[in-house]
Amino acid sequence: MARILTYEEKDTWIHRLSGVTKLVFFLLWTLTSMLTYDTRVLLVMVVFSFVIYSMSRTKWRQVGSVLKFIAVFLVINLIAIFFFAPYEGVNIYGSRTELLHLFGNYTITKEQLFYEFNVMIKYFTIVPAVFMFVVTTNPSEFAASLNRIGVSYNIGYAIAIALRYIPDVQDDFTQIKHAQEARGIEMSSKASFMSRVRNMASIIFPLIFTSMDRIDVVSNAMELRGFGKHKKRTWYAGRKFTAADYITLAVTVLITVTALVITFYDGSRFYNPFL
Amino acid sequence: MTPIIEFKDYTFKYRSQVEPTLRDINLNIYPGEKVLIVGPSGSGKSTIAHCMNGLVPFSFAGDSTGTLRIKGEDPAKLGIFGMSKLVGTVLQDTNGQFIGLTVAEDIAFALENDKVPQKEMFQKVDEVANVVEVDSLLSHAPWELSGGQKQRVSMAGVMVDDVEIFLFDEPLANLDPATGKRAIDLIDKISGTRKATIVIIEHRLEDALYRDVDRIVVVGEGRIVADVKPDALLAGNVLIDQGIREPLYITALKHAGCTVKEQSRPQHIESMELEPYKEQVRKWFKGAAFEKKTLNTESALCVNHLDFSYVEGRPVLKDIHFDIRKKEMVSIVGKNGAGKSTLAGLICGFLKPTSGAIYLNGEDISDQSIKERGEKIGLVMQSPSQMISKPLIFEEVALGLSVRGVPEEEIKERVYETLKICGLYPFRNWPVSALSYGQKKRVTIASILVMNPDVIILDEPTAGQDYRHYTEIMEFLKSINEKFGITIVMITHDMHLMLEYTDRAIVIADGQLLADDTPANVLTNEVIADKAYLKKTSLYDLAVRCGIPEPSQFVERFIHHERGQREGGGRNGKNSDL
Predict the structure, then answer these.
(1) Number of residue pairs across A and B with CB atoms under 8 Å?
(2) Per CATH, is B5-228 categorized as 3.40.50.300?
(3) Where are the beta strands (DSSP E) in B343-417?
């Protein structure tokens, strides 16, 4: 079975970075991208995003299906903005350059197009960063580095173990679904939406019970091997902060500050080419 | 010498139960010993294991009297973590206990919890990985491993701790016969090189005895019934009385009228002194009745040159071809991951074949949906909890009919009738949760049976069941096969099952059909057994060593004799009803 959006081991400088470094980068990057509407800043960020994305040597099959989903969502989002707020751009940029009258109260304006273009490139700045974080971060190493910066190892391990058992639960789900389908419970699009929701229960309950059995075994196995014995623990997959980590963090902070200074320099989050 | 494990007048009662599970246990195990603990389900053998590793009383609370000392210490005072330094436990569920995201991390888990520095960890992990031969798999994720490999990782995971006692809780339960053999071999190796004390809990006696053990402790109804050397145990009758399956060659010798003597060293068929018995076995072989079953010629399920692959160019199944006749009981066997479950998926329509076709009663069902096929081909999953989705027994059994819009009155009638057949009628209004495992299994079979299928496919119907439950489930299946003429196909790696209950075995190895023959022929053929990760039956060795030229004939006769006995009132009344 192909596993989408999961960590894959590769030897690049991005993979070698500590999980915490990548988390900090991811958070600051997303924050900046959400705050700014400065087109110049966004364009630079897009280019930067794609450069590091290609450096991470992420393959299409690792992210492809999720990307398609996001693309559809993006299109819906853009259309919806136009229909719910056709003159948002006009309000923001304070001018109105009409291009084409559609119908009723809907006219395409240059300002609106520019505004929606900004929304679109925001996606392009964030999406590669998300993908990269997920597919280049070894969950165990991530748990270890979270622990090092003071987060309780229980939380870190909870994340790691969830990732460990997600494929198992997925397999259980498919098996149970098949067995119930064979009994005549229709899960395909042939059934109405409501009956599919109701039929879902006949998969969810067995899934919960098998998962409970699993939890029993896992918690006993963990305890028998001394999990929770001490306040601290060491990590096989742990990694020390290297020079690359410090440099990355410094660069990340620098980019964030610069981007925000440029954005808010003139007192508005928007870059206005119509002045 | 002072014992490393010492139970003295030990009685234990779980808090949730009224009666004690263990009563007056007196048991000494000495350093370096290798002890096998056997007993039927519910005998208390697992509780003994839990007492040794500290799960009792720390995870399973209860009250105890008497004393228990592990290396002179009281487990209740040492705590579960203190115990984990003395006793390393390998659990039955090889997948469930795999905690780490990779092999290396899983092995290192105990070290991590002990704050061992990373450098030292790397070294130790490499060292033990070498011992159990998983060193080439260190960066593999659990889903890339086979059951046997996972088990070896678990062994490594307790070995890093330098424990003095190794406790194996049903190590054979989830493994195919050849992998099980390898596991027993590895346990033997650990006991030899590490000078560790080994305790194995298992009910598959013959497989567990593949390598020498020093003593066998038999547990029955919470008490120790026997604590003797293997040779002495096999010469006595304790096993049968406790409902534990004897090694097949012992049973065969008894059928032949021999009294097995301790002096003959019956622990291994290869080294047993057979001279006193040979003549009698040969005589029995000549006289034993044997009847060739006439096969029905009408086809029930025909798989016609089936190919399947998930990814083009990497076939999972290649040119699978067989024809199952009406009213047959057939087993599909082969090692874990050979493609058996994929085949079931193709038959039920969860997967689409790359080429080839499947015929049901002579009719091509390639175009039928899962639901349509489900009306004629029922699939029973391995664990009842994978299927049961309704709180009440009646609702659960009625599910398949009610989703098909069968009128209420008819549903009631058919469900009641099915419940009567399955012996579940008195419980019809009970919640499913109040039933035992065997009864739940019956509920899942009933919920399939109610739809009047032509064929029932069962995935590992007896996995993890002791001899008594095994016999109950199988006799029940046999009865519905005989009474209603339902064709039964079982996917299994239980060799006893294929030998005793099926007329034909379809052997699949590495995605190809390796054999389609009587189980007796399959299990006496070394080449097939090796390729399919099966194990030659010990009856074969017995026949050969007694100078019988047709070992597979001998096996046939043995099975025939066994079946005759079972039909004649069961063995010592152990086929009690649920």
Answers:
(1) 167
(2) yes
(3) 355-360, 363-364, 377-380
